[in-house]
Amino acid sequence: MDLRIVKTKKNIKEAFIKLRANNTLEKIRVTELCQIALINKTTFYKHYQDIYALADEVEDETILSIMNSFEHMDSLFNKPDSFVKGLYYAFKSHETWILTIFSGRINVLIDKVEKQLKMQYPAGNRFPEKDIVLSFLFRGASQVLMESKYDETALLDTVANITKHIIVALDF
User: Fold this and answer.
1) How far apart are CA 2 and CA 9, in angstroms?
2) For residues 93 and 95, what is the distance between their CA atoms, to the nearest angstrom?
3) Could you say which DSSP state residue 50 is in?
4) Which of the four pLDDT bands, split at 50, 70 and 90, describes residue 1?
5) How crowded is the C-beta side of 46, counted as CA atoms within 13 Å?
6) How does pLDDT run across 93-116, given as a tens digit for each residue?
7) Number of domains making up the chain
8) Does residue 55 belong to any structural domain of this protein?
9) Does residue 37 sit within a domain?
10) Which of 24, 87, 114, 159 is least surrounded by Cβ atoms within 10 Å, i.e. has the fewest?
11) Residue 54 falls within a domain, yes or no?
12) Per-residue pLDDT tens for 66-89?
C-alpha cells in the first residue's frame, strides 16, 4: 500500500479515536474529524463510505488485536478455566481501547468477538448444542468479567468453576 495512504488512514483513525473518547458514534461529524486529521472531506470519502464504515474498521482492528492476545482461545471444552482466564486477560489488556471504541456499543464488541470464537469452533456447525453453549458461556462470562466489581482472583475462579461445571454436566 502507498505510504501516503497508510499515513492518511492512520491520521483519520487517530482523529476518530480522539473524537470517540468524548462523543457517541452518532455525534461524530466528518467535518470535525477532517479538521483534526488535517485532511479534506474528499480525502475522507476516498477511503471510507461514512463514519460508520470507519468505526467498523477500527472496531474490527481492535477485535483482531483482542483475539490475537487471547491465550487458550481453543480450550473452552477441554480446559475451561484456561479459556476463562484467557478471555479475561485478553479483554483486560485492551480495556482502554474497549472503553473508548465500544463506548455505548458493548453489544457490538460482544457480537464481533462471539463471531470470531464461533469461527474458532467450527464443530458448532455440526453440533448445535456446542454452539449454543459457546454463546451462553461467552456472553455470560464476558458480561460478568467486564463489569464486575469483585476481587479478580475470586471472580476468575468462580466463573471458571461455573464454566467447568456446565461443560462437564453437558458431557462435552
Assistant:
1) 11
2) 6
3) S
4) confident
5) 12
6) 999 999 999 999 999 999 999 999
7) 2
8) no
9) yes
10) 24
11) no
12) 999 999 888 888 898 999 999 999
